[in-house]
Amino acid sequence: MQHVDFKPRGVCSRMIHIDLSDDGKTIEDVGFDGGCSGNLAAISKLVSGRPTEEVAQILKGNTCGPRKTSCADQFSQALLQAMEQIQATGTVQAE
């Protein structure tokens, strides 16, 4: 399993914790510190077991109110970064 801790920017959540399959192609689990707990808990349930790339593309660009990003968009950015690192090195590098 690959584990990612991602510090989002411009949103209410303070940290996103992601567990991916060893090859990074499947989301095993995700948790958010802070943010809108009900919505983020729902996102976590909806994405568990889903393909990483599919989820990243669906959530990419989602906004929250007047912000140019959202917790979902930041989650997609974390997934895209993790996939890039796994393809390049075989593992996610700690930040």
From TrEMBL:
InterPro entries: CHP03905 (IPR023806), TSCPD_dom (IPR024434). It is an enzyme of class 1 (oxidoreductase). It comes from the Bacteria. Keywords: DNA synthesis, Nucleotide-binding. It catalyses: a 2'-deoxyribonucleoside 5'-diphosphate + [thioredoxin]-disulfide + H2O = a ribonucleoside 5'-diphosphate + [thioredoxin]-dithiol. Its EC number is 1.17.4.1. Residues 7-83 form the TSCPD domain. It holds the Pfam family TSCPD. Coiled coil: none annotated. Belongs to the ribonucleoside diphosphate reductase class-2 family. NCBIfam families: TIGR03905_4_Cys (TIGR03905). This is ribonucleoside-diphosphate reductase. It comes from Paratractidigestivibacter faecalis. The lineage of its organism: Bacteria, Bacillati, Actinomycetota, Coriobacteriia, Coriobacteriales.
